[in-house]
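Reading a protein record of the kind used here takes little practice once its layout is understood. An example of such a record is reproduced below.
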Amino acid sequence: MIKIKIPATSANLGPGFDTLAIAWKLFLHIKIDPSYYGKEIIYNTKSQQIKEEDNLFLKALNRTLELIGYSPKNYLIELDSEIPIGKGLGSSATVIWGGIFSAEILAKKELSMHDRFKIAYSLENHLDNLSASYFGGLTICTMENNNPKIVKFPYPDELCGVIYIPPYSLPTEKARKLLPKLYERDKVVYNLQSLAFLLSGFLYKDENLLTLGIRDSIHQPYRFPLISEVNIIKKKINDLGGIGIVLSGAGPSLLTFALKEKAIKIKSGLEEFIKKEGLKGEVLLLEICKEGIIIEK
């Protein structure tokens, strides 16, 4: 039995639109038995069942096998995900990587990183989530001449995320359609300034810098109105001593950062608050995953 573990991600992080993402210790687990008689894939997910036409794992698996030129006769693959679907936690990126690495294991052949990203990006053109899920940690990414350029940025282990996950989904493409095609210069400058403070806050573990760093004028002002709980969750997190909130990816999940001791208190206080207010959804404490994709043979 071969095991693969692929981390969830939060992209954008406020001003880092299509640029930043972070990997969390929240995983898609895959077990592969190449000696199984027949072909079977079992899905155990936290959310709704996956429609065949939307099955990115199967698409990535088949596309990779086709590239390698291998057709396996026998396998049992079991997917068990801790990651909710459609909540802004990079579930699509994890199943794409799962399909690619499962194909490599079945074919007993390793592709180059370039070929892996070429397949992955052809299925989902969100390089931010793909980068952080693959490498782990906090990643910065761009495309240069159709080639991904990715670097890991220092991130302190003791800085945690606290995330409120609403009971409903928000498709990324729907959220993207809300955004303007052109932006005024002052908004772009504002985001550049915020991004500089955000990275400085991560580097120095400074919550005052992070408070300045989570400001955004590019995507969140247009997406926040889709999330009915945003104002009360933001106010409660601020009341608990937090720095404010950002969207995790395109949402609808709402994320804040805090050093671990404070993060535990924010999580506890937020859980009590949503129970008292009768809000549905869940609150998680997230720790950074610096390893990226892990394969155990």
About this structure: The chain has two domains: 2-153+289-296, 159-286. The chain has a mean pLDDT of 94. The CA atoms of residues 90 and 280 lie 21 Å apart. DSSP finds ten helices and eleven strands in the chain.
